[in-house]
Specification:
The chain has 133 residues and is α/β, with parallel strands linked by helices. Helices cover 25% and strands 25% of the residues. Strand 3, helix 1 and strand 4 form a beta-alpha-beta unit.
Length: 133
Protein backbone atom coordinates (compact mmCIF):
# COMPACT_ATOMS: atom_id res chain seq x y z
CA UNK A 1 0.00 0.00 0.00
CA UNK A 2 2.86 2.43 0.75
CA UNK A 3 5.48 3.58 -1.69
CA UNK A 4 9.06 2.50 -1.40
CA UNK A 5 11.22 4.94 0.51
CA UNK A 6 11.84 8.20 -1.36
CA UNK A 7 14.07 11.12 -0.38
CA UNK A 8 13.42 14.87 -0.36
CA UNK A 9 16.18 17.42 0.10
CA UNK A 10 16.16 19.65 3.17
CA UNK A 11 19.26 21.75 2.53
CA UNK A 12 21.99 19.20 1.95
CA UNK A 13 20.29 16.43 3.98
CA UNK A 14 18.04 13.76 2.50
CA UNK A 15 14.72 13.29 4.30
CA UNK A 16 13.27 9.79 3.91
CA UNK A 17 9.53 9.41 3.37
CA UNK A 18 6.87 6.92 2.32
CA UNK A 19 3.35 7.72 1.13
CA UNK A 20 0.16 5.81 0.49
CA UNK A 21 -1.65 6.32 -2.84
CA UNK A 22 -3.12 9.78 -3.49
CA UNK A 23 -6.46 10.60 -1.94
CA UNK A 24 -8.83 13.47 -1.23
CA UNK A 25 -6.26 15.22 0.97
CA UNK A 26 -2.70 14.82 2.16
CA UNK A 27 -2.15 13.80 5.77
CA UNK A 28 1.37 14.16 7.17
CA UNK A 29 2.36 12.30 10.31
CA UNK A 30 4.91 14.55 12.05
CA UNK A 31 7.47 12.27 13.70
CA UNK A 32 9.32 12.55 16.94
CA UNK A 33 12.94 11.50 17.21
CA UNK A 34 12.45 7.73 17.47
CA UNK A 35 10.28 6.83 14.47
CA UNK A 36 11.19 5.23 11.15
CA UNK A 37 9.04 5.72 8.05
CA UNK A 38 10.15 2.35 6.71
CA UNK A 39 8.60 0.52 9.69
CA UNK A 40 5.69 2.62 10.96
CA UNK A 41 3.15 1.58 8.29
CA UNK A 42 4.05 -2.08 8.92
CA UNK A 43 3.54 -2.16 12.71
CA UNK A 44 0.61 -4.53 13.37
CA UNK A 45 -0.82 -2.48 16.24
CA UNK A 46 -1.07 0.55 13.92
CA UNK A 47 -2.79 -1.22 10.99
CA UNK A 48 -6.29 -0.10 12.00
CA UNK A 49 -5.20 3.50 12.43
CA UNK A 50 -3.23 3.49 9.17
CA UNK A 51 -6.22 2.00 7.33
CA UNK A 52 -8.55 4.66 8.77
CA UNK A 53 -6.18 7.49 7.83
CA UNK A 54 -5.63 6.20 4.28
CA UNK A 55 -9.39 6.06 3.80
CA UNK A 56 -9.36 9.85 4.30
CA UNK A 57 -6.44 10.66 2.00
CA UNK A 58 -2.79 10.12 1.19
CA UNK A 59 -0.93 9.33 4.42
CA UNK A 60 2.70 10.45 4.50
CA UNK A 61 5.31 9.21 6.97
CA UNK A 62 8.77 10.80 7.05
CA UNK A 63 11.92 10.76 9.17
CA UNK A 64 13.59 13.92 10.41
CA UNK A 65 17.30 14.34 9.56
CA UNK A 66 19.33 12.24 11.96
CA UNK A 67 16.51 9.74 12.52
CA UNK A 68 15.22 6.61 10.84
CA UNK A 69 16.17 6.26 7.16
CA UNK A 70 17.05 9.95 6.70
CA UNK A 71 20.63 11.14 6.47
CA UNK A 72 22.59 11.12 9.71
CA UNK A 73 23.64 14.40 11.27
CA UNK A 74 26.98 15.43 12.61
CA UNK A 75 27.22 15.06 16.40
CA UNK A 76 27.05 18.49 17.96
CA UNK A 77 25.19 19.91 14.94
CA UNK A 78 21.60 19.07 15.77
CA UNK A 79 19.05 20.58 13.39
CA UNK A 80 17.17 23.64 14.60
CA UNK A 81 13.43 23.61 15.06
CA UNK A 82 13.18 25.62 11.85
CA UNK A 83 15.20 23.00 9.96
CA UNK A 84 12.92 20.26 11.29
CA UNK A 85 9.87 22.25 10.09
CA UNK A 86 11.61 22.67 6.73
CA UNK A 87 11.61 18.87 6.41
CA UNK A 88 7.81 19.02 6.14
CA UNK A 89 8.12 21.56 3.33
CA UNK A 90 10.73 19.42 1.57
CA UNK A 91 8.53 16.32 1.65
CA UNK A 92 5.39 18.18 0.53
CA UNK A 93 7.30 19.85 -2.30
CA UNK A 94 8.80 16.54 -3.42
CA UNK A 95 5.31 15.02 -3.56
CA UNK A 96 3.86 18.06 -5.35
CA UNK A 97 1.48 18.69 -2.46
CA UNK A 98 0.12 22.20 -1.91
CA UNK A 99 -1.36 21.65 1.55
CA UNK A 100 -1.83 18.98 4.19
CA UNK A 101 -3.42 17.99 7.45
CA UNK A 102 -0.66 17.68 10.07
CA UNK A 103 -0.85 14.99 12.75
CA UNK A 104 1.66 15.42 15.57
CA UNK A 105 2.45 13.17 18.49
CA UNK A 106 4.25 13.98 21.72
CA UNK A 107 7.75 15.19 20.92
CA UNK A 108 6.72 16.62 17.56
CA UNK A 109 4.29 19.35 18.64
CA UNK A 110 6.72 22.25 18.33
CA UNK A 111 7.73 21.26 14.80
CA UNK A 112 4.12 20.92 13.67
CA UNK A 113 3.01 24.17 15.33
CA UNK A 114 5.94 26.09 13.82
CA UNK A 115 5.15 24.76 10.34
CA UNK A 116 1.44 25.59 10.74
CA UNK A 117 2.23 29.10 12.00
CA UNK A 118 4.75 29.89 9.27
CA UNK A 119 2.90 28.12 6.44
CA UNK A 120 -0.81 28.69 7.13
CA UNK A 121 -1.72 28.37 3.43
CA UNK A 122 -0.15 24.89 3.36
CA UNK A 123 -1.80 23.71 6.60
CA UNK A 124 -5.37 22.43 6.32
CA UNK A 125 -5.55 21.36 9.97
CA UNK A 126 -3.30 20.54 12.90
CA UNK A 127 -4.19 17.46 14.95
CA UNK A 128 -2.40 16.80 18.25
CA UNK A 129 -2.38 13.23 19.55
CA UNK A 130 -1.45 12.05 23.03
CA UNK A 131 -0.81 15.42 24.57
CA UNK A 132 -1.37 19.12 24.22
CA UNK A 133 0.19 21.96 22.28
Amino acid sequence: MFSETHYALNGDLRVAYRASPEGARDIVFIPNWFTCCEHLPEIPSLHGWVEAMTSLGRLIFFDQPGTGASDPITPGALPTLEQWADSITAVLDDLGSREAVLIAIDGAFATAVLFAATHPSRTTALVVLEGYA
